[in-house]
Amino acid sequence: MKILHIISQAPDFTGSGKYIQAILKCSAKNGHNNFLVAGVQGDFSLSSKIIAVEQTKFLRFDSFDLDYPLPGMSDVMPYKSTVFSTITQSQIEGYKNAFKKVITETVKEFKPDIIHSHHLWIVSALTRELFPDIPMVTTCHGTCLRQFALCEDIGRRISPAIKKINKIMALSNYQKQQIMQIHNIPSEKIYVVGGGYDEKLFCFAGKPLPPPVEILYAGKLSHSKGVTWLLRAFKKIAENHSLSSSLPILHLHLAGGGSGLEKDECIKIAEEINSISQLNCSDSFERSIKIESDSLFRSKVTVHGALSHEELAALMKKAHLFILPSFFEGLPLVLMEALSCGCRVITTSLPGTCEVLGSCDSLLLKDSNNKMITLVNLPELETVDKPYSRDLDELETRLCEHIVKSIKDLSINPEPNLDEIDRLTKNYTWQNVFQRIETVYHKAKYFN
After folding, report:
1. ∠ CA(436), CA(314), CA(26), 5° rounding?
2. Closest Cα partner for 7 from 38, 47, 34, 44?
3. How far is CA 340 from its chain centroid?
4. What number of CA atoms fall less than 13 Å from residue 225's CA on the CB side?
5. Which residue in 173, 202, 260, 443 has its CB near the most CB atoms, within 10 A?
6. Rg (CA), the chain
7. Fold match flag (2-196+429-446 vs 213-426)
8. Exposed, middle or buried, 128 (CB in 10 Å: 0-12/13-18/19+)?
9. CA distance 110 to 116
C-alpha cells in the first residue's frame, strides 16, 4: 500500500513526532511504501534510518518557505514556535496555502492509496478538502482537542471537514468520547489504537543500588506538563533539612526541550535547588547544570535538554523513579518506556493515563512498597491544563508526600515488580499498535 503520512509540525521532539517515526518504521517493515510531508524548522533534518530523504517533503518555517516560527500543537514546544491562539488571519492563509502547495505536489507525484494525517486540526481538514476521494485516516494526539478549546473560531471552521475524514484513530476510549462530543462524529468512525514504545530499546537491565535515588522527568519544560510543580515540590524537600537528611541522596534529572519564559522558570528553580546545597550551577540549558561532587549535597537537579531516544533509554535504565506530573495528556507513551525500564512511576490521575495503566480506583487502593504506579489526584482545573492558584500549595505538599513515600518504599524494596511491568506494557509495543492501525487502513480503503 502507498501511504502518505502528513504532520503539520516537526516529526520529532514531541510525543506525536516520536509516534510518527515509529509508524514509519513499522509501516516499512510491513512492506508498505511511505512518503512523509511535515512542517519543520528551517534547519530540521530527519535520519535516513526512519525514512529516505527522497521520500519526504518538508515545509520549512523561519526560512525560505514561511518567515515565522513553526506553529506547534502545544502552546509550549521544545523548540521556537508560533502559538495558534495568537496567529493572525494572514498567517493562517499563508500557512494553508503553503501546505496546500506541498501536499498537492506530493499527491500528484506519489499517488497514494491512503493518507494518514496526524492531529484533528487545520492541515488534516485542508487535506480532506483537497482530496475528498482518497481514503484518509487521522490520528488524534489530544493536543488538537486542546487547541479546539483555545481557538474556537478556527475549530468551528475546520470541524465540517474533520467530520468527512473516513476513519479517526484515538489513543484511548476517553479521547474517543471527547472526539465524538467535540466534532459530533459517530462512534463507528473512531477506533482506539493506543500508542506504543520500543521494547528493544526501553527494557530492564538492572538498577544501580541507591544512594543516590535517581529521579527522572522526561518531556517539555512547561507549566502544562507540571514541571514547575515538580521542581517546587523537590525544592520543599531540599529546604526541609530534617526531612532531606532522613532520606538518601536524591538526584532529579530533567530530560527534554523547552522555550520561552516557562523554560526559563524551570531552569531558575533548578538552580535555586542546587544553590541550597551551595553548589556552583551553570545557567546553560543545552550543556546542563553541572555538579562537581556528590559528597556536597543532599539533593540536586541536572537539566539535560533534548535527548535522543537512545540517550533517554540509557537515563531511564539507571533511574529508580519516574515522575510525570502533567495537567493534560492524551496518552503519555513515556510512561510505557519508563515502566519497561523498571522505573517506579508517579503520575497524575488523568483519564487517558488511568485507562492505559488500569483503573484509577484499583491503583489508588494498592498500598505495598513494591507497587509500580502512584497516582496523584488533581483538583478541578481552571483551564484544560492549568490549576487554580489557590490549589498550588496543596498540590506541592501532595506531590512531596508521594515522592517521599516512593523513596522510602524504594529503600525497603529496591527491586521493581517485573510481573506487574509486563502486565502493564505488553499490549503497547509498536508492532502491536501498528497491527491495529493497519486494520483501520483497510477499513478506510475498502469499507469507507
Report:
1. 20
2. 38
3. 17
4. 28
5. 202
6. 22
7. yes
8. buried
9. 14
The answer regarding whether domain 213-426 maps to CATH 3.40.50.2000 reads yes
Chunked into runs of 10 residues, the chain (448 residues) has average pLDDT values of 97 91 96 98 92 97 88 89 93 96 98 98 98 98 92 95 98 92 96 92 92 94 94 91 83 91 94 72 40 51 91 96 91 89 94 73 49 90 88 94 92 88 88 95 89
Domain 2-196+429-446: CATH superfamily is Glycogen Phosphorylase B; (3.40.50.2000)
Residue 172 vs residues 168, 190, 240, 315, 358: alpha-carbon distances, Å: 12, 10, 40, 28, 12
pLDDT for res 62: 87
Instruction: Provide the pLDDT for residue 325.
Output: 96
**65-95 pLDDT tens trace:** 899 999 999 888 888 899 999 999 999 999 9
Residue type, 344: R
Helix H segments across 111-172?
A: 122-130, 143-150, 152-163
Give the dihedral of Cα atoms 256, 260, 263, 269; nearest 10 deg: 170
**Which residues have CB under 8 Å from 245's CB, separation 6+?**
298
* 3-state per-residue secondary structure call for 354-411: HHHHCCHHHHHHCCCCCCCEEEECCCCEEECCEECHHHHHHHHHHHHHHHHHHHHHHH
Global pTM exceeds 0.85 = no
Find all residues with CB under 8 Å of 429, minimum gap 6, and list them.
196, 197, 198, 199
Cell numbers 471537514: residue: 161
Structural domain spans, the chain: 2-196+429-446, 213-426
Residues 6+ apart with CB under 8 A from 309: 18, 198, 201
